[in-house]
Specification:
The complex is a heterodimer of chains A (116) and B (116). With 116 residues, chain A is an all-beta fold. Chain A is 0% helix and 50% strand. In chain A, strands 2, 4, 5, 6, 9, 10 and 11 form a seven-stranded mixed sheet that branches. A four-stranded antiparallel sheet of chain A has the order 1-3-8-7, with no helix packed on it. In chain A, a hairpin with a 3-residue loop joins strand 4 and strand 5. Chain A is globular, with a radius of gyration of 13 Å. The mean pLDDT of chain A is 93. Chain B is mainly beta and 116 residues long. Chain B is 0% helix and 51% strand. In chain B, strands 2, 5, 6, 10, 11 and 12 form a six-stranded mixed sheet that branches. A four-stranded antiparallel sheet of chain B has the order 3-9-8-7, with no helix packed on it. In chain B, strands 1-4 form a two-stranded antiparallel ribbon. In chain B, a hairpin with a 4-residue loop joins strand 8 and strand 9. Classes of the chains: A mainly beta (116), B mainly beta (116). At the A-B interface, strand 5 and strand 9 of A face strand 5, strand 6 and strand 10 of B.
Chain lengths: 116, 116
């Protein structure tokens, strides 16, 4: 049981390049999300999905795209990387939505992205 | 507003001693969950403990316990018999109300260093 798998673990990009952070979970979770972690700011939600074909914006969505074509996968796309997107990115999933708090998030190992 | 404040950016404790990490939050919800997550140097986010707001009894998980003061909106984490493996960043978090998005709201984190 792999849980939540993120790839790559490290990536260096040049400004303007595009890339995709991959996220896959094998727990049949409906809810998946992407957070970014920056020093002094905790984790902030970028985008989330409550099921295949359904996505919504979080609090810092600009510069990122997501799609959810299957229950298992939730990739995060950077269309034109900027230095402000240098961060650590976490994918996290839960059996269902987390507003009630009854469902606990399972996190991937994180991906460190540096944009030069 | 849905906010979490961790007022201690860094703390240190001697091995085998007890330390308390502070957290205050702001929500207008009447029932909710509160979480403490641990992030060791490996970067993995690990759930330490969870408290449901309507339960008066403070949650306990082995050496970890909370002091939950609902009226004061305070949710501190006590670590007893500190071990070197407790060295990590600790985040306090709670699920936002549905109108604020399907997300966890995180504090900025407290770095805890356990010294031998």
């Amino acid at each position: 049981n792999a849980g939540v798998t993120q790839t790559p673990k490290f990536q260096v990009l040049k400004t303007g390049q595009s890339m995709t952070l991959q996220c896959a979970q094998d727990m049949n979770h409906e809810y998946m999300s992407w957070y970014r972690q920056d020093p002094g700011m905790g984790l902030r939600l970028i985008h989330y999905s409550v099921g295949a074909g359904i996505t919504d914006q979080g609090e810092v969505p600009n510069g990122y795209n997501v799609s959810r074509s299957t229950t298992e996968d939730f990739p995060l796309r950077l269309l034109s990387a900027a230095p402000s997107q240098t961060s650590v990115y976490f994918c996290a999933s839960s059996p269902r939505g987390i507003s009630s708090g009854a469902n606990v998030l399972t996190f991937g190992a994180g991906s460190r992205l540096t944009v030069l | 507003a849905q906010t979490v404040t961790q007022s201690q950016p860094e703390m240190s404790v001697q091995e085998a001693e007890t330390v308390t990490l502070s957290c205050t939050y702001d929500t207008s919800e009447s029932n909710y969950y509160l979480f403490w997550y641990k992030q060791p140097p490996s970067r993995q986010m690990i759930l330490v403990i969870r408290q449901e707001a309507y339960k008066q009894q403070n949650a306990t998980e082995n050496r970890f316990s909370v002091n939950f003061q609902k009226a004061a909106k305070s949710f501190s984490l006590k670590i007893s018999d500190s071990q070197l493996g407790d060295t990590a960043m600790y985040f306090c978090a709670f699920p936002s109300a549905p109108e604020y998005g399907n997300k966890l709201v995180f504090g900025a984190g407290t770095i805890l260093r356990v010294k031998s």
